Amino acid sequence: MNKCNRQRGCKPETEAKYRPAFELYTATDLSIAEICRQRGISVSGFSRYIGTYHRHLMLERNGITCGREEAAAIKMNQRRGQRPETHAKYKEAIVACGSMDYIEYNISQIAREFGLDSTNLSRQLRTHYPEILEFRERARQRLGLDDGLPRGTRPWCKEQYAEAVELLRADRYITAQEAAGRCGVSYSGLKQHLIFYHKELVENRIKIREQAVKQRCKGEITGRGTLHAPTPGIIGKYAEALHLYRTTPLSARKIAKQTGVSVKGFYEYLQTWHKDLVCERKGIPYEEGKPVDWSSVRRYNPATAAKYADAIARLKEGGLTTAKVATEFGLNPECFRQYLKEHEPELHARLGMKTTENGKMVSPKSMEKYKEAIHLYETTSESLKSIARRFGLNDCSLGQFIKRHLPELIERRKLRE
After folding, report:
1. Which of 4, 111, 196, 226 could anchor a disulfide with 22, C-beta 3.0 to 4.6 Å?
2. pLDDT band at 299 (very low <50, low <70, confident <90, very high)
3. Could you say which DSSP state residue 99 is in?
């Protein structure tokens, strides 16, 4: 039977996706990162798959042997930032450091006892178990075993990292790596210095990041401790397109084609970083951090307004009907009327439209044109097509006029039939 047999709750397509990587995981000692690189799959996805459906194998790799059923209840007891395999490697030595049985031994002697490097064991203690070092210091002093060696940060070390520490205290958006680069110090050295001597700063920054997890507000900190903002490269890529979007009525699609950027990419850039501009174009209220109700109001973008601008100016001069102006400018009359109704209500009302008994707006000329045909439609059972032919009308236009302005006639006719 295949080693990667179907697990309860795991979809067949997921099993098939990770089967080649799983076979490498069981047959070799390669790391998950290396396996995923070879197979071209996501590290986070494969790690989650192993941890969920083959947890006993993950524990076995980290020195914990157990059955498939027992694995779910076993937690990896590593500290933040400590890998499971590192925890397993130093576990016994760290227990010994915290035991009175080894209190006479110094850290180097304990490391040699367990076949470990003393510097690395000291780093593990300082980074993840500082309470053990404090316990040993107090106990050895009480027993008269103090070695007289200096403790705490060295003056030159404190001076070397002082600027970077102050920068991290003052700017919560900057990362330790960025601070090290600005101040010209070693990133790994700064990180160790912070963990050893500025634990409260590290803990505060961790709390800020934890509170910001899953929050995506522009200009605010994220769970990674960085500012949620586009990179300089992305800003430069869409700079010209964004300028046109701000200053012209062109649609986003036309702007993208004109500036040579991806249409989909530009849409995503606007939705992610400039949603306020998108809402402004559509006339929809926008508030940072709150969802936008795109269906609240039907709006036209500036390109549509520009399309009808000349026709509206011509219509305001007077003397022409909406249909004639629409024809003159090559517009769809019905779409033009709908636009006027929504965006130029006063002009729409001045165009000789009258309100019918059912509250519909209708042109007197159109009503006069279809008056006799409508009377026959209302009082006889003659077909609409026959009525239209009798008066020399287009049956589709007559039908649309009745449907748009006198829908109650259609209902009454259905009842009669």
Report:
1. 4
2. low
3. S
Quick one: tokens of 277? 């501009």
Residue range 54-69, pLDDT digits in tens: 888 887 877 677 777 7
Question: From residue 260, how far is each of 237, 241, 251 by CA, in Å?
Answer: 10, 9, 14
Number of domains forming the structure of the chain:
6
Helices and strands in the chain, H and E counts? 26, 2
Q: Check whether residue 269 and residue 310 sit in a common domain.
A: no
Q: Are residues 278 and 309 in the same domain?
A: no
d(CA 189, CA 186): 5
Annotate 151-181 with b (16+ C-beta within 10 A) or e (fewer): eeeeeeeeebbeebbebbeeeeebbbebbbe
Q: What percent of the chain has pLDDT over 90?
A: 8
Which amino acid is present at 301?
Answer: N
The predicted model scores a pTM of 0.40
d(C-alpha 239, C-alpha 233), whole Å: 10
Neighbours of 43 (CB within 10 A): 14
Domain that holds residue 106: 84-142
**pLDDT score of 301:** 62
Q: What is the pLDDT of residues 111-130, one digit of tens each?
A: 998 999 988 888 888 778 88
Based on the fold, state whether residues 289 and 316 are members of the same structural domain.
no
Tell me, yes or no, whether 225 lies in a domain: no
